[in-house]
Amino acid sequence: MKALIQRVKHASVVVDQQCIGEIEHGVLAYIGLGHEDDFAAAQRMIDKILTYRIFENDDDPAKFGKLDKNVQQVGGGLLLVSQFTLMAKTDKGRRPDFGGAMAPAAAQALFEQLVDYAKTKHPNVATGQFGADMQVSSVNDGPLNFFTRNLILECHQAVIINPFNR
């Protein structure tokens, strides 16, 4: 799972000339889902986005101007937009390879779970429409953009054969 998160002054999603999601001051997060992603990964990503400190601390004079607060602490909105193109492999050639993206039906189900989970953790969550042709507008604040991903940890057991032990 990958996310491109942006601190925004305003962001909205329009589908078929209808605004379907909108936030004021907050975070716009584009979410890419891969084959190995699951609900636990979605929870970790939302928890990270909601607690990522990308807002200035204007309350504490010792921390004035430092990126010390998260979207929850500043009462900002969270706009979640599904974005399979984040999963593209771009290291070879001139055409992106989207083979790393989760299949659409599974991705839609997981994205809906991710949004539902976000709504249990934060009161101001908006979203785009999965699979639709969306026009996303935003006013980037900073600009501040961060790319983050959940790493899947795999454990492999090594078997060492001692040829001298018969």
What does the secondary structure layout of this molecule look like, with pairings?
Blueprint: E1 2-15, E2 18-23, E3 26-32, H1 39-51, E4 55-56, E5 67-69, E6 77-82, H2 104-121, E7 125-127, E8 135-149
Parallel strand pairs: 3-6, 6-7
Antiparallel strand pairs: 1-2, 1-3, 1-8, 4-5
Helix pairs in contact: 1-2
Strand proportion: 25-35%
The succession of helices and strands, N to C, reads EEEHEEEHEE
Low-confidence segments, given as residue ranges, are 153-162
The helix content, as a percent range, equals 10-25%
The overall pLDDT, averaged over residues, is: 91
Largest sheet: 6 strands, mixed
Oligomer: single chain
Work out the number of β strands: 8
Tell me the number of helical segments per DSSP (H or I, 4 or more residues long). Answer: 2
What class would the helix/strand composition place it in?
A: alpha/beta
Termini separation comes to 47 Å
Rg over C-alpha atoms, rounded to the nearest angstrom = 19 Å
